């Protein structure tokens, strides 16, 4: 395979995930007990043997930088690297004004590199992809740009770039986040659209030329979806890669991809991991999921007198101590303590959390470093919860980092 340079956009503010993004950037939000959101895309590149990666950061990036340093160091004696690049205002005194502007402001890394293929991926989606297969498709089509796409329900169209494609895989139509009633559906399937997954493969020289042209356009919003794709599409050299054709070793079934841009989608993605047959698995040894594991003992489950510790369909990370409590359909991150008689249901604990005795926690996301006193109920009376916490439209309660409840 020709030389490839990869750039991961990891500067997202993540306002729709607030308060989980109150003190961290969106890609750094913990996920699935042991991981961070950015780990999914990094594992896709590492398992695809693509180890020349720049991670472009911006907002509240310290926890992300710490994670990259702890989990993603590679051998500096070879031509491999995973380097965090902060926003440096090289092209003017302003932050990144769009996804294309983020790459343009770091254009020198592309210009000084010998790579002929540039991968530009987002950092906050949950999925697996052998990126080599997409690059092979890109080469076969001699494309300037290849965009990954997935079939989604039409009622979600307003969240994504919606694509039309011909029989050869060429993009012939594109609308960025259209109204649902205006979204073009898949021919023969009026209930679904073909949505951009927000990851791109470019020819290097053509990408450089396009970024320079776009940067000089004062009318542009400097965004790949809004500006770059519509400008390049008429050339006939923009192709669409069908994500469902991507094959991961030792895995079968439908391709899974989820944008975790909202509290609801984040909670649902965690709950997906708990299904009897999860739509995405982190247990495939042929596609290992790397991350940073802190030095903690194994999870410990203890009965307390006549009170039995019960765990049902849950993920419990290292350092957990569960004493006479019931955990059902929940995800617990590192170093969680749960006291006697407490019942936790359909909840996500990000880690470093202590919950007292006889509590009831239902459909709640609890950020790190939270302490909850004995006898507290959360997620039971949403009207009361709304007076104290963030509650999503779907009834998911979110407890911010560092909260002290009932003390």
Provide an overview of this structure.
The structure is a single chain. Helix 2 (62-71) links the parallel strand 4 and strand 5. The protein has helices at 38-47, 62-71, 99-104, 107-111, 131-140, 204-215, 224-232, 263-272, 382-386, and strands at 4-10, 30-31, 35-36, 52-57, 81-86, 117-122, 125-127, 145-153, 161-165, 171-176, 192-203, 238-242, 257-259, 300-302, 310-312, 315-316, 321-323, 326-328, 331-332, 337-338, 343-345, 348-349, 354-355, 360-362, 364-366, 371-372, 377-378, 390-391, 397-399, 404-405. It is globular, with a radius of gyration of 22 Å. The mean pLDDT is 94. It has two domains: 4-272, Spore Coat Polysaccharide Biosynthesis Protein SpsA, Chain A; 300-405, UDP N-Acetylglucosamine Acyltransferase, domain 1. It has nine helices and 30 strands.
Topology:
Elements: E1 4-10, E2 30-31, E3 35-36, H1 38-47, E4 52-57, H2 62-71, E5 81-86, H3 99-104, H4 107-111, E6 117-122, E7 125-127, H5 131-140, E8 145-153, E9 161-165, E10 171-176, E11 192-203, H6 204-215, H7 224-232, E12 238-242, E13 257-259, H8 263-272, E14 300-302, E15 310-312, E16 315-316, E17 321-323, E18 326-328, E19 331-332, E20 337-338, E21 343-345, E22 348-349, E23 354-355, E24 360-362, E25 364-366, E26 371-372, E27 377-378, H9 382-386, E28 390-391, E29 397-399, E30 404-405
Parallel strand pairs: 1-4, 1-6, 4-5, 8-12, 14-17, 15-18, 16-19, 17-20, 18-21, 19-22, 20-23, 21-24, 22-25, 23-26, 24-27, 25-29, 26-30
Antiparallel strand pairs: 2-3, 6-11, 7-13, 8-11, 9-10, 9-11, 28-29
């Amino acid at each position: 395979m020709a030389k490839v340079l990869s750039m991961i956009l990891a500067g997202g503010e993540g306002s729709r995930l607030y308060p989980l993004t109150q003190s961290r950037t969106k890609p750094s939000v913990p996920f699935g007990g042991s991981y961070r959101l950015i780990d999914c895309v990094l594992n896709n590149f590492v398992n695809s043997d693509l180890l020349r990666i720049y991670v472009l950061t911006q907002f509240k990036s310290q926890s992300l930088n710490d994670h990259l340093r702890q989990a993603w160091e590679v051998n500096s004696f070879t031509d491999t690297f995973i380097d965090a690049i902060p926003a440096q205002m090289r092209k003017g005194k302003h932050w990144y004004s769009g996804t294309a502007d983020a790459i343009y402001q770091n254009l020198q890394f592309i210009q000084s590199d010998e790579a002929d293929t540039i991968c530009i991926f987002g950092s906050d989606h949950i999925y697996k992809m052998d990126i080599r297969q997409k690059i092979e498709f890109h080469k076969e089509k001699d494309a300037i740009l290849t965009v990954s796409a997935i079939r989604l329900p039409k009622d979600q169209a307003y969240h994504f770039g919606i694509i039309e494609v011909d029989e050869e895989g060429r993009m012939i139509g594109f609308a960025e986040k259209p109204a649902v009633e205006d979204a073009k559906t898949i021919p023969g399937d009026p209930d679904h659209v073909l949505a951009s997954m927000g990851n791109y493969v470019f020819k290097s020289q053509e990408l450089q030329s396009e970024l320079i042209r776009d940067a000089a356009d004062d009318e542009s919003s400097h965004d790949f979806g809004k500006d770059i794709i519509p400008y390049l599409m008429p050339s006939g050299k923009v192709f669409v890669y069908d994500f469902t054709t991507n094959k991961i070793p030792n895995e079968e079934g439908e391709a899974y991809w989820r944008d975790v841009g909202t509290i609801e989608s984040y909670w649902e993605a965690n709950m997906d991991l708990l299904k009897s047959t999860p739509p995405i698995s982190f247990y495939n040894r042929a596609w290992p999921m790397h991350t940073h594991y802190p030095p903690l003992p194994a999870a410990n489950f203890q009965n307390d007198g006549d009170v039995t510790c019960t765990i049902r369909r849950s993920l419990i990370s290292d350092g957990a101590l569960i004493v006479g409590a019931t955990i059902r359909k929940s995800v617990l991150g590192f170093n969680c303590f749960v006291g006697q008689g407490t019942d936790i249901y359909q909840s996500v604990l990000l880690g470093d959390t202590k919950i007292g005795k006889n509590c009831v926690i239902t459909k709640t996301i609890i950020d790190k470093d939270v302490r909850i006193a004995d006898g507290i109920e959360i997620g039971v009376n949403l009207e009361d919860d709304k007076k104290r916490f963030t509650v999503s439209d779907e009834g998911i309660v979110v407890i911010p980092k560092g909260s002290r409840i009932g003390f």
